[in-house]
Amino acid sequence: MDKWIYSFNEGRADDKALLGGKGANLAEMTHLGLPVPEGFTITTQSCLRYLETPSFFESILKKEILKAITTLESQTNKFFMGNESSLLLVSVRSGAKISMPGMMDTILNLGLNDLRVQTLADTTNANFAYNCYRRLLQMFADVVYGIPKEEFDRCLVKTEKQLNKTVNNFSKEEHQTLIQQYKEVYQEHYQNFPQNPKEQLHAAIKAVFKSWNNPRAKVYRELNHIPHNLGTAVNVQSMVFGNSDQNSGTGVVFTRNPATGEHHLFGEFLINAQGEDVVAGIRTPEPIDALKRILPQAYDNFCNYAKILEQHYKDMQDIEFTIEKEKLYILQTRTGKRTAKASLKIALDLVDEKMISKEEALLRVSPSAINQLIHPVFEESALKSAHCLTQGLPASPGAATGEIVFTAERAKELHALGKKVILVRQETSPEDIEGMVVSQAIVTSHGGMTSHAAVVARGMGTCCVVGCGELSINEYDKTIVCANTILKEGDIISVDGTSGKLYTDSISTTMIDNNDELQLFLSWADEIAQLSVRANAETIQDLKTAIQFGAKGIGLARTEHMFFGEKRILEMRRLILSNDEAETNSALKKLLAFQEEDFYQMFQTIQNKAMIVRLLDPPMHEFLPKNKSEIKQLAEKLQISAETLTQKIASLQETNPMLGHRGCRLGITQPEIYKMQVEAIFNSAIQLVKEGMVIKPEIMIPLIAEKSELLLIKAFLCQHIDSIFKKHHMQPFPYEIGTMIELPRACFIADQLAKEADFFSFGTNDLTQMTYGFSRDDIGKFIQHYKDKEIMSFDPFQTIDQTGVGELMKIAISKAHQVNPNLPIGVCGEVGGDPASIPFFQNIGITYVSCSPYRVPAARLAVAQATIS
Ligand code: PEP
Ligand code: MG
């Protein structure tokens, strides 16, 4: 028989798929003997079943819930129904397998009604009891009926103003008046607050199940690659009250600093408050160290439990606690979200502390965290002259400049127009997620390091500053006042997520030098990784960046990128437009000189590392001018008429340039270009060999579809290379000629090609284009429709399509290995640097991946992770 509900003393930490992260950890903590309030977890399977067949709730689940509540009553010796003096009140919280902070719903104090609140008031105090009831009414309305929270806030603010005191000082009658107003809000929405606790519980559980599919949860899942078919568990837990009195409180604490990784408790608490108060950022919490002074016994107990939990889970924990009349309860523990910087430091420290192995450490840091570490900071010189407006808490590092916006909607609108925006709000809430995703940075005036803005931004790697108390933000007037400065929507500000400072200038950004910790960490990755990582680069700057980031070599130097300089393009144009041999030779001579200089510097920069130079690939008309004035200018330089030039350009136009006269076709129709390139490569290599370097040129031919194409080109290149050695009176040194595999046909004849090629490199950009028949330059126009209509869940130009393109790659590799089991085979299309694609490449027998220099560090980690897992 299926089991739909587990008591906290039944599950374990490994049951995350069934009990959700929160439920599994509550169960684990119960087993560890920690003071966890009793409760039970309704499984993720129940959620999925209910979402699919709602009648399941009435026919099966309801009975099970009632049984679980009865057990909870006997465990706690309290009563959920009736009006006994010992009231059982519960919280109802979502909890998915993978934590999605704030994305789904929670209801506290459930079980109160008009009568029971009076009992609670009689047994505790009126202020506490009515505040609990008021909060329940508001949360229930929001979660179950979707009535906006603000409507209740408005009543509260109005009553507080009228009575000229805060809600915590209301008399019983004043509370009752306010609660009456809350009920009127319900009526305005044609709803009622159910007085029966069981009815409340059923409605709350259904609403939490449904919150799995609310828009913000869906967006969060897409962003974090969390599957949509997991469902959420629901935790029903007996309430403990941090808002009981001045010896009560609630807090959220990380066992290490989630921003820097430093090893000390980091977090906040509020005396006389309920959990949501800390996260909502409405009252400003105190740092956890202050608890030592206020409630020393609870503080000591907390430190002890924090240590137990960290050692048990062998990772930094994010712990929620409540103190009820000096007694400490642990309400939740989970692996703490952290910045990229903290993630690296914690992984290294845990190895140092002998808590985890190097391999485990490598799995603890995500490749995207590595990307954040190598991302921009403000240029120091520009920063010196910038005007610092104010400083808040540095919640998530990074540096960004952009236009101020005050709402998530506006952020989305301006982002769609290509603008860079900074979202500035008093505090963010989960509804803001879509606006946060598109913002360069997020700034809030309220809230601390565990506020919604801080946690979410950190998770997304977005620069964020919270708690800028000096900013008076008016979201309706769309203005910020800070001392004497007034800023409006659209004004530029710069945000430093590392220092917490805001500036009123636009400030240029730069990269941090590779720090020692990152180098050490990635050196562990290199020791373990099966695949190596090369870079796609052809400028000296890019080559240097690639080496600095630890590329093992250059997997693809696209030579067409070397012809676009002003002088070079003129000679290239002369070559393309030449009418006789003399003109051709003169243009080639000049291009040869340019290319010699290029290759000389490139070989010098790359030193003893491998470098694959790919011969020219793009269609010729890409080098020619497009508009009239450019045509006129070029015609003058070439001393021909504009009409003649226009005709020539028209004659070179192609209907489908991607399928046309490009790649090795150019080498076949204009062999002199490839010969010139090879001559430049060998002239410079020979010169450097004479100067004492060891060089083994690797030349790659693009877009091969036929074995005879490769044979023909290889024959004239080899012959030409022989003549170059002779010209230089040089004993030939080894070199290699390989081919790209970027057409489906090349995959099918890979055995024939492997006989002729010294290496293969998969050009997955073209291979994907040619397999799907999707133009790589136009996919942006329709991919979103494909995703929305669930035809495809990802863009195959970003992540390898294992089923189609991947299958072709497997065929090619298997055929090639039949001929030459040691043939080096790389991947140099965009997906080469995609961490999600790398495990597949390792499995099918790829030798190395090659990607743009900035993707190299993350790819180095991803290849190690692929080996470990
Ligand atoms: C490819 O097609 O994947 C490739 C690397 O070549 P290019 O992007 O230059 O066509
Ligand atoms: Mg290509």
Automatic annotation (TrEMBL):
GO molecular-function terms, A-Z: ATP binding; kinase activity; metal ion binding; pyruvate, phosphate dikinase activity
Gene3D superfamilies in the cross-refs: 1.20.80.30, ATP-grasp fold, A domain, ATP-grasp fold, B domain, Phosphoenolpyruvate-binding domains, Phosphohistidine domain, Pyruvate Phosphate Dikinase, domain 2
Residue ranges that the Swiss-Prot or TrEMBL entry lists as coiled coil: 628-655
Xref: InterPro entries: ATP_grasp_subdomain_1 (IPR013815), PEP-util_enz_mobile_dom (IPR008279), PEP_util_AS (IPR018274), PEP_util_C (IPR000121), PEP_util_CS (IPR023151), Phosphohistidine_dom_sf (IPR036637), PPDK_AMP/ATP-bd (IPR002192), Pyruvate_phosphate_dikinase (IPR010121)
Keyword field contains Secreted: no
Binding sites annotated in the UniProt record for Mg(2+): 742, 766
Residue ranges occupied by any Pyruvate phosphate dikinase AMP/ATP-binding domain in the UniProt entry: 61-288, 300-352
Record domain PEP-utilising enzyme C-terminal: where: 518-866
Residue stretches making up the PEP-utilising enzyme mobile domain: 419-500
Annotated family: Belongs to the PEP-utilizing enzyme family.
This protein's name: Pyruvate, phosphate dikinase
Organism per entry: Streptococcus intermedius B196
